Amino acid sequence: GIQVEQSPPDLILQEGANSTLRCNFSDSVNNLQWFHQNPWGQLINLFYIPSGTKQNGRLSATTVATERYSLLYISSSQTTDSGVYFCASNTGNQFYFGTGTSLTVIP
Amino acid sequence: NAGVTQTPKFQVLKTGQSMTLQCAQDMNHEYMSWYRQDPGMGLRLIHYSVGAGITDQGEVPNGYNVSRSTTEDFPLRLLSAAPSQTSVYFCASGGGGGELFFGEGSRLTVL
């Protein structure tokens, strides 16, 4: 299967700061997605981004499929951004997830 | 607009008991899957299905059974629960574009 490496594993930010989360894959990137797991445990879809760049408000993501990585940018962070961020991709019908970046935003 | 619905949300079992986690989706997705989430390990695929009557194993299938008799439902069965199956379980479905949508999770404790 695919090895998915996320960095950094933990991140603490002051409210209003910006951050970049990275996801590296050991094999071809297919249906790459970013998720936010909120403190209540829900997995929220952030981006479906097999390639290119997308933006949604303060969040944006870029996937460079040829180099097997994806970046998630969070600007002007808010306390509600706290939680764990996961990326995932698939080979065939099997999806593989990274171990996540745990983000804490301090007021 | 329910999306993916999982029940129950919480369950406590004794070792050796059996149970079924239910998953239903109303998006007419062919692809459905079950994951378990353990601390520090992300989500790992247990079983998946690409349509009614078709199921296959993921990374960690041992101790779990699935069936897919309809497009909407994909139950996960634990035939003889073990403490190692204490985890949070997520069901997900996906359309032809490859994007996954998750249920809210089921927290299982096996004593």
Describe this structure in words.
The complex is a heterodimer of chains A (107) and B (111). By secondary structure, chain A is mainly beta. Chain A has strands at residues 4-7, 10-14, 19-25, 33-37, 43-48, 52-56, 59-64, 69-74, 83-91, 94-97, 101-106. In chain A, the strands form 2 sheets. In chain A, strands 2, 4, 5, 9, 10 and 11 form a 6-stranded mixed sheet that branches. Chain B is built from no helices and 11 strands. In chain B, 0% of the residues lie in helices and 51% in strands. The mean pLDDT of chain B is 95. In chain B, strands 2, 4, 5, 6, 9, 10 and 11 form a 7-stranded mixed sheet that branches. Chain B has a 4-stranded antiparallel sheet with strand order 1-3-8-7, with no helix packed on it. Chain B is mainly beta. Chains A and B meet through β5, β9 and β10 of A and β4, β5, β9 and β10 of B.
Share in helix of chain A: under 10%
**Termini of chain A, distance in Å?**
40 Å
Number of helices of chain A: 0
- Radius of gyration based on Cα positions of chain B: 13 Å
Low-pLDDT segments, ≥5 res of chain B: none
Number of DSSP-assigned strands of chain B: 11
In sequence order, what are the helices and strands of chain B, one letter per element? EEEEEEEEEEE
Summarize the structure.
The complex is a heterodimer of chains A (107) and B (111). With 107 residues, chain A is mainly beta. In chain A, 0% of the residues lie in helices and 59% in strands.
Summary keywords:
heterodimer, A: about 110 residues, mainly beta, 6-stranded mixed beta sheet, 5-stranded antiparallel beta sheet, 11 strands, B: about 110 residues, 7-stranded mixed beta sheet, 4-stranded antiparallel beta sheet, globular
